[in-house]
Amino acid sequence: MFDLLIRGGTLATASDVFQADIAVKDGVIVQIGRDLGEARNTVDASGRYVLPGGIDSHVHISQPSGEGIVMADDFESGTRSALFGGNTTVMPFCLQRKGEGLRSALSDYHALAEGNCYTDVSFHLIVSDPSPQVLGQELPALVEDGYTSLKVFMTYEDLRLSDAEILGVLDTARRTGALVMVHCENEDAIRYLIGRHEADGDVAPKAHATTRPIAAEREATHRALSLAEIVDVPLVIVHVSNRESMEEIERARRRGRKVIGETCPQYLMLTAEDLDGMDWEGAKFVCSPPPRDKASQDACWDGIERGVFDLYSSDHCPFRYDDPAGKLNPKGRESFRHIPNGIPGVETRLPILFSEGVMKGRIDLPRFVVLSSTNHAKTYGLYPKKGTIAIGADADLAIWDPAATRTIRHADLHDASDYSPYEGLEVTGWPTTIIRGGAVVVDDGVLGEGARTGRYVPRDRSSLAGPTETDVEQSSTGGIR
Ligand code: URP
Ligand code: ZN
Ligand code: ZN
Ligand code: ZN
């Protein structure tokens, strides 16, 4: 007797689309085929697609910001919104506070997540203070404990690392097998441009885009890739917004570098014109890198289609708009420089790619699965437990109704922000039923009882990282990997 049978659906994986039923026992897929037998519970998926649950490997939840700014989503609202958007796992960032260690940040962050998650979660680290203690002791131990990825910033006054510091982090990554993600924008150039704009009284939200030009992103992308090449490690370039930065990634790959590229819905759907809204409404679209123009949108779609991008993530980073602790904070109203960076989007990420990508014929269903789930699992060490439909994999599934049409309205979404950057966008296709660890957690759009039972998932090293020095030492003394 199975726990759950999903009947009559059209399944899609990274490679195939086929009709089959799925049998689940103890949270895991145990059979795929026809006439599988009896189960305690059955879901009828006829006329719908059964896909691996989405994995959003770039979200910000309850991340501390300075100057009284408060992120809109905690784990409860952030993961609930993710779940309704077809995701069963999200990967938020645990921020190291300057002068403190990684372990203390992690224990605080775990406490926030514990018991409050509708999806499974696994944390990346943000290294903001790469002291000898952090790089020499803490980080190597944490990689062993399953914290196998981390992000560094080349921008933001309070987070940016110098090139020397980034090299130190990359070198540690090479020794330990950790995977490094980089936010590529040239901070000094941006500071210079911000100063010039403020001196001219050009302080409206639109100036956020003009002070973060493509060249600042392209230059930093080139520099990050060069630093990784010097130390010889793979690299993830996150939230790429334009063709010139994509070209840096492709050039590095032609030199034989392992580079993972990520883009996000905002670079496919928004432009800098959106920041030009009336009476500060443009603040709703302030994120970094900023949305560019139509040509950049086309380039990013091209990158989605051609495989320049391995990952498509939301970079969900929600602040409320009409709130003195959010986009409309008093200093932000004086200058764009104080508008918190980031926009909500964890729930709309996949419906946008499904509608604009699959339904409009830009990508096929397997490519959708790759970009929404499989590659996230492979890149960050969750595969094959997650990211596919296979015997032995976690029963994390999103059942999509390809005929459902919706107009995106923030009122219908489940995050704790007060707007969506995609308000009014019409989409075709929506995830209606979500199964996580074999439990039906959203049933035809209704949250199931006991849905807030997502778990923390420790991870393996990325398969990209290759053998580490420790592994090599072990194998030369007869150890087996
Ligand atoms: O503007 C953005 N993207 N904020 C989130 C933090 C980051 O840089 O990813
Ligand atoms: Zn970033
Ligand atoms: Zn200007
Ligand atoms: Zn981000």
Automatic annotation (TrEMBL):
Report whether Metal-binding shows up as a keyword of the record: yes
Q: What InterPro entries does the entry give?
A: Amidohydro-rel, Hydantoinase/dihydroPyrase, Metal-dep_hydrolase_composite, Metal_Hydrolase, Metallo-dep_Hydrolases_sf
Recite the UniProt keywords alphabetically. Hydrolase, Metal-binding
Q: Which GO terms describe its molecular function?
A: dihydropyrimidinase activity
Could you tell me the superkingdom of the organism this chain comes from?
A: Bacteria
EC number(s) stated in the UniProt entry for this protein: 3.5.2.2
Cofactors required: Zn(2+)
- Ranges for the Amidohydrolase-related domain? 49-441
Q: Which Pfam families match?
A: Amidohydro_1 (PF01979)
Q: Does the keyword RNA-binding apply?
A: no
Task: Please list where the region (Disordered) is annotated.
Answer: 452-481
Family the entry assigns? Belongs to the metallo-dependent hydrolases superfamily. Hydantoinase/dihydropyrimidinase family.
Report the protein name in the record: Dihydropyrimidinase
**Native source organism of the sequence:** Jiella pelagia
GN (gene name): hydA
